[in-house]
Amino acid sequence: MTAYVVRGARVVGGEPTDLLIRDGVVEAVGPDADVAGATRVDADGLVALPGLVDLHTHLREPGREDAETVESGSRAAALGGYTAVCAMANTDPVADTAGVVEQVYRLGQAAGLVDVQPIGAVTVGLAGERMAELGAMADSAARVRIFSDDGHCVADPRMMRRALEYVKAFDGVVAQHAEEPRLTVGAQMHEGEWSARLGLTGWPAVAEEAIIARDALLAGHVGARLHICHVSTAGSVEILRWAKSKGFRVTAEVTPHHLLLTDELAAGYDPVFKVNPPLRTDEDVAALRAALAEGVIDVVATDHAPHTTEDKECEWPYARPGMLGLQTALPVVLDTMLEPGLLDWDTVAERMSRRPARIAGLTDHGHDPAPGAPANLTLVDPAARITVDPADLASPSRNTPYAGRTLPGRIVATFLRGEATVLDGKAQK
Ligand SMILES: NC(=O)N[C@@H](CC(=O)O)C(=O)O
Ligand SMILES: [Zn+2]
Ligand SMILES: [Zn+2]
């Protein structure tokens, strides 16, 4: 196993120091961190963060390997500074059995670029009717702890209650895609001024907020853990604040795109901006940024959702919703949160690594580089600027909403259990 000496890194934004990485751990930090024969990594001006952890990634394997495979998505993740991703269950077949989650888990291990932690479906086939075999998935080699029908809402309150009761037994968590389906029939974009002007059916904020309120109450009643996916409205933030003040075990995520982009981007009818939940208003963006700074929203999760050009480059109403996110997440967070002073490096590490690792129960992840810690870390150059070129991305899909945009922060290196998965901005496998 290669030993590395990382020279002059600012650990979580602190003073420059050296790191010795050997046998899967950070062996030493400081001027004595050295050993003969180690590979030297010049980290002058770079910030070392605990490896990022994504609670919400769509890898499209099994079923849509033309859009993304476990391997290509793992490579995108490593290049984005991630060391662990949680893979959503809306594959084909759906990850609703021990067999499918074990398959995804093993594909992740074989790719060896990040830890791929499968999420299990709540209901069979995401159909909302019969509960999936949650216990068998939890007991499987994949050790599933997060369950979600993401892509669909668990709309039936009785099903949601039973799922919360079930996961409580093994300290699991239900991750809800909060969308009251009766309020979003035919919806194409945020319901507001722009949907009226463009003649596209609206997806009202209340469709999200009503489910968050209902499920927060259910989680409080049951005493189980609930996680809210891709929170997108100012009203949702108020409900989350209230739920937390009650002591309910509710956590929430925001995506990078909901921190930066707004509904008026639909004006060009380019479906690259079509996503679920939809891009909202400037007021929503401001509320989401403030909530992430305050901690009412716990984490940033990418909702990386690759789609092929056939599924994306068509008329708006026929296009699939979703955006790539893994390779641009940290730059967008630096742009929207760090540079304006809403987060510092420590809180970036908290929202993108430590807290998501704790929510997912990934005990090897979310540790600051310190002596004895598992060597899962990333090095970022905050002074560099990247210009996003869809053709450069690791996914076979091209649906990034940031094409041509310049963003701060270049991921220079990523280490998974002491092995470099990315060096000099290039994937090592
Ligand atoms: N976010 C999206 O617009 N799409 C996701 C599903 C989801 O996250 O709800 C997908 O699987 O493509
Ligand atoms: Zn969703
Ligand atoms: Zn999703």
From TrEMBL:
Q: What is its EC number?
A: 3.5.2.3
High-level lineage: Bacteria, Bacillati, Actinomycetota, Actinomycetes, Micromonosporales
User: Is Zinc given among the entry's keywords?
Assistant: yes
Which pathway does this chain act in? Pyrimidine metabolism; UMP biosynthesis via de novo pathway; (S)-dihydroorotate from bicarbonate: step 3/3
Residues annotated for substrate binding in this entry: H58, L59, R60, N90, N276, H307, P321, G322
Kindly give the NCBIfam families that the UniProt entry links to this protein. Answer: PRK09357.1-1, pyrC_multi
Sequence positions that bind Zn(2+) 2: D150, H177, H230
CDD domains from the entry?
A: DHOase_IIa (cd01317)
Which GO MF terms does the UniProt record name?
allantoinase activity; dihydroorotase activity; zinc ion binding
| Key words, A-Z | Hydrolase, Metal-binding, Pyrimidine biosynthesis, Zinc
Cofactor(s) listed: Zn(2+)
Would I find Zinc among this entry's keywords?
Answer: yes
The protein's name: Dihydroorotase
Cofactor, free-text remark: Binds 2 Zn(2+) ions per subunit.
